Amino acid sequence: MPDLSALPHVVVIGAGFGGLAAVRALAKKPVRVTIVDRNNFHGFQPLYYQVATAGLEPEEVAHNVRDIVRRAPNVDVRMGTVVGIDMEVQTLAFADGPDLAFDYLIVAAGAETAYYGVEGAETYGFPLKSLQDGIRLRNHVLSLFEDYNVFGDALSDGTLTFVVVGGGATGVETAGALVELYRISLARDFKRFDTRRAAHVILVERADSLLAGYPEDLRAYAKEKLQRRQVEVRVNTAVKAVTENGVELENGETIPSKTIVWAVGVEASPVAKMLGVETGRVGRVKVRPDLSLPGHPNVFVIGDMAEVEGQERLPQLAQVAMQGGKHAAQTVLRSVHAKPSEPFAYTDLGSMATIGRNAAVAMLFGKIPLKGLLAWLAWVFVHLMQLVGFRNRVNVFVNWVANYFTYDRAARLILGSGRNDRGPRFRDPA
Fold first, then answer.
1. Which residues contact 374 (CB under 8 A, 6 or more apart)?
2. What is the CATH number of domain 9-38+80-113+266-336?
């Protein structure tokens, strides 16, 4: 193995879409790279909702980071949680283990769930920002059906009422998947009660329509398809508080529920505050046009964490992070070769969301609208191609094909205790 110690050391925080894009652009280049993440895997976040709704297994949407970079001799991996960044000394501090020095730093730590000060949302809501979130929600949902099978109407109101807060892509996709789960797969599992009559999904959105940013006809199509699939869609409806027994709305109404999926929005990772610089809306770090920090040309912030000077607020999408990661890596290489940096220019490749079987909406390249079966096929293709690892692609493809023809979801497993650790889920039956 060649001696890499004399090469400039580039540290990348985060093994998400942006971090991996940066590492791939730096692989086999004249730099030494260390990718840092608190997990040893890259998770495909757009499909976490399918883990939560028993469509896919956790290992099908995650891939070991060391395996991803094993063919790059200049790339190493460090698993650990960053707790501090010293910009002057140029080191990272970790919860465990020695500090890590860097010559260049690319911060791609992503975002976390934003609760916007809603009382009880963080305590009782179920986010979908991590693979663990997806597993926890799946355990919870399946456990509720098992409980209902035993106790039935003796359980508290709302035991099988699932409230999804947020009408963006995650909320729409989760609501559609939950309905398909209990109206098709679970309906054949449980013989003592009719899951289709007992369960109910309510999608709550404070704006006047779903999928903000899409054309009006696509937004209307998504709402109509969800309603036809028995999702109760409530727009112009804001959440005031979340409790262990349901959701309190600003109009004074309370919806009894034991499952509140919080799909409202995100804020920058706490790593942003460690940089000690000015942040903008939802904690985003204000960066120069080339994605570097003002006053620190060797430090770059990308993806969900970055607010780029002179540009409109970029969407918090995987493609933004990937393009930003590649640009930051190229800027590092330009610096190594004493070349000036160039401004980051984002290319909108489009956005898409699936409502369920044979139904989706898409905006290709930001200007070509699609809906229905064609949009759904495009969604399937794009998500398969973006998955990391050939085996993952094959497994997910086979799983989706089997589900399509058999209407069966094979990942209906309750792992661990299967119990919600966020407080009591139902009252003891009398």
1. none
2. 3.50.50.60
